[in-house]
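User: I've been trying to design a sequence by hand for this structure and keep getting stuck. Would you show me what you'd pick, starting by listing the structure so we're on the same page?

Assistant: Good idea, let's start from the same input. This is the structure you sent:
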């Protein structure tokens, strides 16, 4: 079951079966939706303020880049 924990602009923090996810628009000039797993601590931190939500996203993107993942490319399959 998917539970919405926090929503700010194009960011949704959800919990699904004990796992936490950030669903967000990672695009600059066009909509590029991503969904990445985050820790429970990151989810709670992001939910405390919009500034912390943005900080969590920047930290997540840095972590993805360090892992060799392009954080500005959608990782969601389009649904027909």
């Amino acid at each position: 079951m998917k539970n919405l924990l926090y929503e700010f602009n194009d960011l949704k923090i959800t919990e699904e079966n004990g796992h936490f996810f950030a669903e967000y628009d990672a695009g600059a000039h066009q909509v590029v939706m991503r969904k990445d797993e985050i820790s429970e601590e990151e989810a709670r931190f992001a939910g405390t303020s919009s500034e912390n939500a943005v900080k969590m996203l920047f930290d997540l993107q840095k972590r993805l880049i360090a892992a060799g993942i392009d954080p500005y490319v959608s990782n969601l399959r389009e649904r027909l």
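That's my pick for every position. To get oriented when you compare it with your attempt: The chain has a mean pLDDT of 91. The helical segments are 40-46, 50-66.
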